[in-house]
Amino acid sequence: MKLLRSVLLATGLAAAILAPVAASAQDIKPRLIRFGYGLSESSNQGRAVKFFVEDMAKRSGGKLKVKGFADASLGSDIQMQNALIGGAQEMMVGSTATLVGIVKDFAVFDLPFLFNNEQEADAVFDGPFGQKLAAKLNDKGLVGLVYWENGFRNLTNSKRPVEKVEDLKGIKLRVMQNPVYIDMFNGFGANAVPLSFSELFTAMETGTVDGQENPVTTIQSSKFYEVQKYLTISKHVYSPWIVLASKRWYDGLSADERKIINEAAVASRDFERKDSREASKQSIAYLKDKGMQINELSDAELGRMREMVKPAMDKFAADGGADLLNELQGEISKVRK
Ligand code: TF8
User: Fold this and answer.
1) Which interval of the chain is the signal sequence (predicted)?
2) Homologous superfamily, domain 29-336
């Protein structure tokens, strides 16, 4: 027996025999994973959730069943974050901007005009800086798995074309619930109105707000063109999304289950970024076709905006964010070289 065993081992046969046993011994329990998100099923967010659902099923032999809940049907970003912390919901994807009440440092990503392009953003979010911030969620009851692309944000409104900053004067502009956004847009002369995304369409429809800012993919998938006439390409902030898991739930999973989730999350990230970037190329033509009047801000005007936003940047730095901002700018210039 002993001899046979050593012969098998030596020939590598043992590995062949033992492999299927090891696979079936993987510790995966049948589980239902509720995955909430704010945009529609047909949005870039929705398509990536669908990818994740299918990929998780594939990797777990159908045991890890993810169910996507679109349109903030499980709640706004902030409500879902709290549900994850409490263990009442397993997963979500949403903006990092709404996480600032939990980990203040995330506000660094809301500062304008940091990234020049998506490649810089990918390198920073997937690199040590992005990972360090995500890790800060751990002792707050959340696990930050991967960053997806929301995209460069642009302005829309129902009042007038915005060709220079002064055109924003007096416009009631919905912003995310985040102090940097409020300071930034008040600094530009608008009246910043913080509101959850789930309330945004109605707020524009009823005139509670005149405008908002989001990537073109969202302006398309959330049908903002129905209630907004003017689109200004400003690319003032690069916005990520973050895929979150409830720490309480995640800690109760087996190592095999966690490995599957981590790997599927990375695959979903790669799918989502590629898909969003392709989709965004079509969006401008689509929105024009829907009747939006579109203009691009000139470099000179963007330069003026950079100047005007300095007080908001200084406030962030003075409020304890100076080192973090320096570190982020350092990371970006490393990629730029
Ligand atoms: C916003 C964000 C949205 C996210 C989404 C609902 O304007 O850009 O994309 O919050 O998860 O709120």
Assistant:
1) 1-25
2) Bacterial extracellular solute-binding protein, family 7 (3.40.190.170)
